[in-house]
Design goal:
The chain is an all-alpha fold.
Length: 214
Amino acid sequence: MSIGAVLAQLRTEFPDVTISKIRFLESEGLVRPARTAAGYRQFTTADVERLRYVLAAQRDRYLPLKVIKEQLDAADSSARVLRAVEDGPAAPQRMSRDELLARSGLDAASLAELEQHGLVRPGLYDQDALQVATTVRELAQYGLEPRHLRPFRAAADREVALVEQVVLARRRDPRSRGRADEVVRELAALSVTLHTLLVKIGLRDVPGGGVPPR
């Protein structure tokens, strides 16, 4: 839809919104409409919902745009993880230890600490390991060290063990044997969804916390 159509939808709930405001939010990276060949903006329903969340967060919770953008980015990241899980595992692309260090920005001592706490498997350096290492490096900016992240590893191990129990039980049933891989993907997606929701609910009580609903 056009920017004018978006404005018409939003004005019923946000009377003060203007086309200039929508353009400003786009310039700040809070919404990313597609463009036609002639350069006109084309908004989707998801774009409108995103704008509605931004405007409500400003009006009702007085959140600055920087915090709102961080929350939206976190939600986008969760959605990418869910899509990757639902699409099934891809063939891992291995890399050397030096390449992992160079691409993640970690030093050798930090990587060794990640391996010590079970966050990265020694010698198993692939895209998932790179994403873990990069995420840990970003968390370090907030004072969180690898030793603080052991609960994440423990929680993941418990979830994996629970999924494994269900899959093993189904494999004993001849009618369910052929669906083992599909069941793993479904349970993994549901597990990630539940984990994300519980974290979002818990963050509502943290000042400035909370992430937008999916």
